[in-house]
NAD(P)H-hydrate dehydratase (Vallitalea maricola), 514 residues
Amino acid sequence: MKVVKSYEMKEIDRYTIEEIGIPGIVLMENAAMSVVSETIQLLKESNNVVICCGIGNNGGDGFAIGRILSCNNVKVSIIIIGDSSKIKGDAKINYDIARQLNIDIHEFYDDKQIDEFKNIVNDCDVIYDAIFGTGLCREITGKYLEAIKIINRANAYRIAIDIPSGVNSDDGQILGDSVCADKTVTFCLPKVGLLLYPGANYVGDLVVTDIGIPNISVERINSHTTIMDDNLARYFIPNRVKMSHKGSYGKVLVIAGTSKMSGAAVLTSLSAYRTGAGLVKTFIEESVSSVVTTKVPEAVVETYSRADINISNEDKEKLLEMLGWADTIAIGPGLGNDNITREILEIVISNFNKTIVVDADGINALSKDKEILNNRKCEVIITPHLGEMSRLIDYDIGEITNNTIKVAVELSKNYKITCVLKSARTIISSPNGMVNINIYGNSGMATAGSGDVLTGIIVSLLGQGLNASDAAILGVYIHSKAGDKAKDDKGEHGLIANDIICNIPYVIKSSLNE
Ligand SMILES: NC(=O)C1=CN([C@@H]2O[C@H](COP(=O)(O)OP(=O)(O)OC[C@H]3O[C@@H](n4cnc5c(N)ncnc54)[C@H](OP(=O)(O)O)[C@@H]3O)[C@@H](O)[C@H]2O)[C@@H](O)CC1
Ligand SMILES: Nc1ncnc2c1ncn2[C@@H]1O[C@H](COP(=O)(O)OP(=O)(O)O)[C@@H](O)[C@H]1O
Ligand SMILES: [K+]
C-alpha cells in the first residue's frame, strides 16, 4: 500500500476535485461519514461528545461530523479554536450548516474563554480532534498549544480526524505538542507521519477509510513510500513446487559466530532453515563449530582457524570454493570486530557474484573501509541498527533517529545497495529510491540475537529466489510478525530471539492461508 506526504495527498485531492470533477464538499462529506461509521459504536455509552475544530478543512470535517452525529441524536458540542471569521470554502459551508441547525457551538479565541473551554472538555467522554490535519505547517503555540494540553489531560476517549493535531504528516515529528489519540481515522491513504516515531506514539488504533477518491487519482502519484500489509505478503512468499528437491530452495552460506558469540551462527542458520531454505552451510571458527552441529543438526558445518591475525591460504581456498557453491551469503553476525572479519568480507564481496546480506560485524568492518563496497561483484543488502548506521556514515545517532528515511535513502543511492535500517520502525530503502516502512513488531524484539534472526530470514528468501528488495521487505515483515506472535504467547518481557524463530513457520503458514 502507498503511503503519502502532505503535498502528495494535496495533489490527489486537487486532481480529484479539479480534473475529475468530484466537488471537495462531496469528499468532505464522505470523510465525515466514514469517521462516523468507524466511531459510532464507541459513542453508545457516551453522554457528551465534543468536537474541537480548527479553521481549515480539517475543522470542516469536524463540523460535518458534528452535524451527522447531531442528526443521529448524539449530544454534541463544537468548539472552534481560532478566529471563526477566517473559515472559508467547504469548511465554511459545513460551519454555516451547523449554525443553521443550532448545534451548540463555542469559540476558544483568546484567554478569556479558556475556563469555558476547560469546563466543556472536562465534562465530555469523547473528543473528536479536528484542529489540524495535513495543513499543519509550523510549530504550534498560544491557544492551540493550550487547547491540545487540555484535550490530553481530559478523561475522555480521543479520536483524531485524519492525523492527530500536532504530528507533522511528512516525518512524524511533533510540532510543539500533539493530541494523543486513542484512535485515528485517516482518509484515503496512510500519511508517512502516522507511521514514524514519535508521531506513531500519538496515533492509537489507525484506520484508513475510503472517501470516494478514484484509483486513478492515487495511481498517478509517484509515491516512493509503501508499507507491506497482511494481504500483500502472500504474493511475495516464494512458491513451493511438488517436483522439487532441497537444491530448489537455495544453497545458503552463513558466515557468522566466533568463540565469544557462537550463538549468532546458530540463530542465523536456524532462521534460514525455518524460513524455507533447502540447504544451509555454516562457516565458523573451528573451536566453536560443535555449538552449531549440536544446536542446528540440519546445518552443514565448515570450519576455519582464527589462530593467526590473517586468514590462512588454506582457509581462503576453502572459502573461495564455498563461494562457488552458494546461491547467497549472510555475513557478519557475531563474527568479531577484527582483521580476519575484514579479510573474509573483502574476499566475499570481491569474488561472489550474486546477492549477500551484511550484518553486525560485517557492517563494522565496512565502517572502517567503505571502499570495500565499491570494489564488488555482488549485490548487497546491509542491515544496520541505529548504532551501526551511526558508525557507518559517521552521523550522530539522534540525527539518524530523526531522519531515518532520508539517511537510509542516501546510503542506498550512494552505494547502490539495499539498506535495512533497523529500529522500532524499520526502514527498507532500495537503490532506485523506493522506501518501505515496517509497521509491525514490538519492544520485546529489542533482545540480543533478534537481528541475527532477521539476517537468517532475509538470506533464506534470497536463496529461494527473491530479489534483494523483495527479500528485505518480506524478511522484515516475517521477522516482526513472528515477534508479534511470540509476544501474544509470552508477552514482551520474556521474549527471546529463539521465540521469534519458533514463530517464523506460523507467520508464513497463516500468510498463505494454509
Ligand atoms: N482537500 C480535500 O479535498 C479534503 C480534505 N480533507 C481534510 O482537509 C484537511 C487539510 O485541510 P487544510 O489543507 O485546510 O489544512 P488543515 O489541516 O485544516 O490546517 C490548515 C489551517 O491550520 C492553520 N495552521 C497550520 N499550522 C498552524 C499552526 N502551527 N498554528 C496555527 N495555525 C496553523 C492554517 O493557517 P495558515 O497557515 O493559513 O495561517 C490553516 O488555517 C485534511 O487533513 C482532511 O482532514 C477532507 O475533508 C477530505 C477532503
Ligand atoms: N521496540 C521495537 N519495536 C519493534 N522492533 C524492534 C524494537 N526494538 C528492536 N526491534 C527489532 O529487533 C531487531 C534487533 O536487531 P539488532 O539490534 O541487530 O539485535 P542483535 O544485534 O542483538 O541481533 C531489529 O530487527 C529491530 O527492528
Ligand atoms: K486532526
Remarks:
- Residues 232-511 form a domain with the UDP-N-acetylmuramoyl-L-alanine:D-glutamate ligase fold (CATH 3.40.1190.20).
- The pocket of NPW (ligand 1) is lined by residues 13, 17, 24, 27-28, 31, 54-61, 132-140, 144, 161-162, 187, 211 (CB under 6 Å).
- The chain has a mean pLDDT of 95.
- The chain has 21 helices and 18 strands.
